[in-house]
Design a protein that fits this description.
The protein has about 70 residues and is an all-beta fold. The protein is built from no helices and 5 strands.
Amino acid sequence: MTQKFNFYEEVEVLPNCEHSEYVGKKGIVMGVSEENGMIYSYAITLIDGESGICLNPNCLKPTGKQFKREDFY
């Protein structure tokens, strides 16, 4: 089952990610590609500043940290 993440939740990129350059990095969920209840990808802004990265939800895990919208806008 695909994990569902909240907006502004911190996630870490797992080793099974097809984009190996992001493995082990942490980022914040800024968007979601979802249709009819199926999640296709999450838009992530990495902690190191790179943004607009779309990753499969199966290659992400939660860190337990949740931010607020005000932290970014």
